[in-house]
Design a protein that fits this description.
about 130 residues; alpha+beta; 5-stranded antiparallel beta sheet; 5 strands
């Protein structure tokens, strides 16, 4: 089919599919972002509504998660570390909590004591002597 200006009006497969694919990917990214925010708010709210609990626990594992990022505009690199400790409660249940770096360095696998936490928030660990 030709319009009044002599240009073809046929659309190729790419002209038809590209907008659909672009919009689909855009929607998936936005929905994923919204779900992430929703999950964060849900966990924050759940922690606020949880009781502050102190239980006997043993440290059974430690790990770190290191995130690197590079800024091309300033040509700088940054690193962020998150520190985790896995505690085993008397019941045999294990929970992994994010802990501050200064406490992470002081706690050792095998330490036994009183763990204080509020939901998934680490509040402290007092080692038994």
């Amino acid at each position: 089919m030709v319009n009044d200006f002599g240009y073809g009006m046929e659309f190729g497969l790419m002209e038809t599919l590209f907008p659909i694919i672009f919009i689909t990917i855009f929607v998936i990214v936005i929905v994923t972002f919204i779900i992430g925010i929703g999950n964060g708010v849900k966990e924050w709210s759940s922690n606020n509504n949880s009781l502050l609990v102190t239980v006997e626990a043993t440290i059974v594992d430690k790990r770190t998660d290191v995130y690197h990022s590079h800024d091309n505009n300033t040509n700088s690199t940054s690193r962020h570390s998150t520190y985790y400790i896995t505690f085993e409660l008397r019941s045999g249940e294990r929970i992994e909590l994010t802990v501050p770096v200064k406490e992470y360095g002081m706690l050792v696998i095998g330490d036994y004591g009183k763990l204080t936490h509020q939901g998934t928030r680490y509040k402290g660990f007092e080692r038994n002597m």
